[in-house]
From TrEMBL:
Pfam families attached to this UniProt entry: GIDA (PF01134), GIDA_C_1st (PF21680), SAM_GIDA_C (PF13932)
Signal sequence extent: none
Places the protein is found: Cytoplasm
Domain of life: Bacteria
Similarity annotation: Belongs to the MnmG family.
Organism: Pedobacter albus
Keyword Iron: no
Cited InterPro entries: FAD/NAD-bd_sf (IPR036188), GIDA_C_N (IPR049312), MnmG (IPR004416), MnmG-rel (IPR002218), MnmG-rel_CS (IPR020595), MnmG_C (IPR026904), MnmG_C_subdom (IPR047001), MnmG_C_subdom_sf (IPR044920)
PANTHER family, per the entry: GLUCOSE INHIBITED DIVISION PROTEIN A (PTHR11806), PROTEIN MTO1 HOMOLOG, MITOCHONDRIAL (PTHR11806:SF0)
Cofactor(s) this protein requires: FAD
Subunit details: Homodimer. Heterotetramer of two MnmE and two MnmG subunits.
UniProt-annotated binding residues for NAD(+): 270-284
Name the record gives this protein: tRNA uridine 5-carboxymethylaminomethyl modification enzyme MnmG
Binding site for FAD: 11-16
Length: 620
């Protein structure tokens, strides 16, 4: 029934979809096997993409030819650029999305991708020969052969759903758990762990009183994730904000004795930064209220997602507490919130390509690696799909650097440090975040994708033109002066000191209070120049002008650190021969098998003196 595939992807969540698309777009024949083809790219929790640091990841995937940004744009209900009042390193695009349309568009995109075949079934085990994966065996007993396999099982491996004291097997509400794989992998020598996550109840929007809530509209001039020309929806939908109160908290507390979290029935650790409402009340007892975002689930549904109210308390307690929230007095519940526990595999068992160290040609991506979030999953899937293709074609591997992408930070953190609780991305995890901005993901990453063959010559040419155009604007500001007489009244109105001599435009624009849109009003030649470029190019030039000296300093740091990153270590290096290493360092180095001295220096337990020992031996 089946030919031998180049790459078999197990699971069609965010990781699996990007993995399948990337491998297929590079030319691999791909089979995407998933338990339910109706839930391809299902958003299990929040119908939203992006947000702080996550939005940067979506831009990075898009800059490299992945699909998540395009699909998020096509299905946008509302777009907001978060943190716009802070520096550009913090600007983070976020969309509210139509959950159904998001899944539909992903399926369509995959169906339109040549080289992707589909099969709906549960994979129960892997076929392994000489420590190399050669295919998969499904629950029906069908054996399908593939040169590489990417596992992206998400929250499904031995998943258990909890609502109050009730618990049952499931990978997501209404879907079966996946069994067999964890057992086989642990027999093969993999270490597995348990994690948990949760989701809020969904509400009938017709039963809510929106007059009691604050409106939250999207941006007036909405942006986008994709650097391509996706047609955005014409309209946006409103979201709302309301708050819990002490009555809500008291009601929720009544259910604590039946809470699977507090009675110890849930053993796995949950996402620290996405706590359940009961966790928030427990941990932040002094807080009188918590913010609730009331978010529509789609264009053609009245279903509402209650962001901030994730819970696994009994359904009657959830309901009673909800009806005490302003605007929710007459709320009707569509679906209760729940928590789910599932197996994951500590990601230190992977190399930086996301291939497992134990079994060749076997890759893991997404929640199976202990992460949480669609964006984190999608980016890993994308890289695993690329590397699976490269591996079966004996082509060079793709290892993303920490200094060039959030994706690089994510994978390096996972593989080098591991994670014991669901890992989500933050800007603070990236030491070079000033360089890893949402506005320049194309400049940073499109050349890499072009070299791989994932984006066209035309697309790279657009990126190069953006660089040339923004450089031309910067050069103009360094040459062209501004007349004191013309600028001073503007500067005063902006609350910044007037000029006492004529200066270059660049010098005025470097002031934090002065924007490019202000200064074009007092320089007609500058205005004329800017009129020839699009908004994104003008914005890019402004960022370059304002932060030039910071970027230069940051680049110097990157270059210095790069020396450590360039010192490669043979993965088979025998650390046992280095007697001067501490015992802990030796054990960790043998386990992680770092690829570079830089990576070795980030392993917890490896001290600067261990690094000095290593440096001497590597340099020999
Ligand atoms: P998933 O999206 O889970 O997809 C896994 C896919 O694999 C599915 O298509 C499934 O059918 C398929 N599959 C699994 N096993 C097999 C098998 N053996 N054979 C064939 N197919 C298989 N993220 C957040 O950032 N914040 C949150 O608050 C949050 N809450 C969540 C709450 C719940 C209840 C759930 C379920 C998830 C939550 N998430 C949350 C996580 C988010 O959904 C995931 O991070 C993301 O979907 C992971 O993507 P993935 O591709 O790794 O896996």
């Amino acid at each position: 029934m089946f030919k031998e595939y180049d790459v078999i992807v197990v699971g069609a969540g965010h990781a699996g979809c990007e993995a399948a698309a990337a491998a297929a777009n590079l030319g691999s024949s791909v089979l995407l096997i998933t338990m339910n083809m109706e839930t391809i790219a299902q958003m299990s929790c929040n119908p939203a993409m992006g947000g702080v640091a996550k939005g940067q990841i979506v831009r990075e995937i898009d800059a490299m030819g992945g699909y998540s940004g395009i699909i998020a744009d096509k299905t946008t209900l509302q777009f907001r650029m978060l943190n716009k009042s802070k520096g550009p390193a913090m600007w983070s695009p976020r969309t509210q999305n139509d959950r159904k349309r998001f899944a539909e568009e992903w399926r369509l995109a995959l169906e339109r991708t040549p080289n992707v075949d589909f099969w709906q079934e549960m994979v129960g085990s892997l076929l392994i020969k000489n420590n190399t994966v050669v295919g998969v065996k499904t629950a029906l007993g069908v054996e399908i052969y593939g040169k590489a396999v990417v596992l992206t099982n998400g929250t499904f491996l031995n998943g258990i759903i909890h609502v109050g004291e009730k618990k049952f097997g499931g990978g997501r509400t209404g879907e079966k758990a996946a069994t067999g794989l964890t057992e086989q992998l642990t027999e093969l020598g993999f270490e597995a762990g348990r994690m948990k996550t949760g989701t809020p109840p969904r509400i009938d929007g017709r039963s809510l009183d929106y007059t009691r809530m604050e409106e939250q509209w999207g941006d007036e001039n909405p942006g986008r994730f994709s650097y391509t020309n996706v047609t955005l929806p014409k309209d946006q939908r409103c979201c709302w904000i309301t708050y819990t109160n002490e009555n809500v908290h008291e009601t929720l507390k009544e259910g604590f004795e039946k809470s699977p979290m507090f009675t110890g029935r849930i053993k796995g650790l949950g996402p620290r930064y996405c706590p359940s409402i009961e966790d928030k009340i427990n941990r932040f007892a002094e807080r009188e209220r918590h913010q609730i975002f009331v978010e529509p689930e789609g264009w053609n549904t009245c279903e509402i997602y209650v962001n901030g109210f994730s819970t696994s308390l009994p359904e009657d307690v959830q309901y009673k507490a909800l009806t005490q929230i302003p605007g929710f007095e007459n709320a009707k519940m569509f679906r209760p919130g729940y928590a789910i526990e599932y197996d994951y595999f500590p990601p230190t068992q992977l190399s930086l390509t996301l291939e497992t160290k134990l079994i060749s040609n076997l890759f893991f991506a997404g929640q199976i690696n202990g992460t949480t979030g669609y964006e984190e999953a999608a980016s890993q899937g994308f890289i695993a799909g690329i590397n699976a293709h490269q591996k079966v074609n004996d082509a060079h591997e793709l290892i993303m650097k920490r200094s060039e992408s959030y994706i690089g930070v994510l994978i390096d953190d996972l593989v080098t440090k591991g994670t014991e609780e669901p890992y989500r991305m933050f800007t603070s995890r990236a030491e070079h975040r000033l360089l890893l901005r949402q506005d320049n993901a194309d400049i940073r990453l499109s050349p890499i994708a072009h070299k791989l063959g994932l984006i066209s010559d035309e697309r790279l040419a657009i990126v190069n033109q953006k660089i040339a155009n923004s450089d031309a604007i910067v050069a103009f500001t360094k040459e062209q002066g501004v007349q004191m007489s013309e600028a001073n009244s503007l500067l005063e109105s902006l609350g910044t000191a007037p000029l006492n001599q004529n200066v270059k435009l660049f010098s005025v624009l470097s002031r934090p209070q002065v924007g490019i849109e202000d200064i074009r009003k007092v320089s007609s030649s500058f205005d004329q120049l800017l009129n020839t470029f699009d908004q994104e190019t003008v914005e890019q030039a402004e960022i370059k002008i304002k932060y030039e000296s910071y970027f230069e300093k940051e680049n110097e740091i990157v270059n210095k650190m790069q020396k450590m990153e360039d010192k490669s270590i043979n993965p088979d290096f025998d650390y046992n021969q280095l007697v001067s290493l501490s015992k802990e360092a030796r054990e960790k180095l043998l386990k992680i098998k770092p690829r570079t001295l830089g990576q070795a220096s980030r392993i917890s337990g490896v001290s600067p003196s261990d690094i000095s020992v290593l440096m001497v031996h590597i340099s020999k």
